[in-house]
User: Fold SseB family protein from Tritonibacter scottomollicae.
Amino acid sequence: MTELTPLDLAHAAMEAAPDDDAARLRFFERLADSELFILLDKEPEGERISPQVFDTGEGQFVLVFDRQERLAQFADRIVPYAALSGRVIAQMLAGQGIGLGVNLEVAPSSILIPEAAMGWLAETLSHAPGEVEASISEVRPPKGLPEVLLTALDAKLATAAGLAQTAYLAAVTYESGGSGHLLAFIGTTEGAEASLAKAAGEALTFSGIEAGALDVGFFAASEEISARLSRVGLRFDLPKVEAAQSYQPQMPGSDPAKPPRLK
Assistant:
């Protein structure tokens, strides 16, 4: 039996509870975070790709698969493809009137996602919580946040390798008198602030939590506030970055060590 993928499991949970909004959100989160292999109608030209578009009675769709073997099984021949994250594909399809066919006919997660749902996903992925600029007067341990949010933050930050040294979640009071919870990133890599804010925003959104429930801040390790946060905050360690690898698209069957599975 073929091993179930995270997308398979999220799809099964969604199908088992059709009225559960949280299960649907988790499926879309897995879709956005997954590396997907998109079927092309011709070889990539530099960074430009041309997805193959299929006309159906339910509209137009491009096809993606979460494993190369699944793409090869569907195509039953050597075909051009590209590997992109689900979030990039959602942004690429936004406003194009094109939906997404996922693992069609080759996996338990086979599903047609209409263009309206892909538009919603693209818009949702663009949201980010507000970045804190106000001065902080008091820092306390986090309190009252749902476990689903803490789990989502842990999973999301595990994908942010090399973007910051660490992060702390704490309850804070600002000098302006306002209060709330803050996700503070310490030792952020230059230019990574927007990506980290988006990651935090996605954890909120796909947990079903209102965006206003969390602020995001960025601090140097040498700042006094960083030491205060380390004493009372809930710590998240971000993975260290691995050696950079450039992706070169390959057609299934072109690597002798990895033959595709065909019918």
In short: Residues 21-33 form the longest helix (13 residues). The chain has two domains: 6-125, 136-237. The chain has a mean pLDDT of 85.
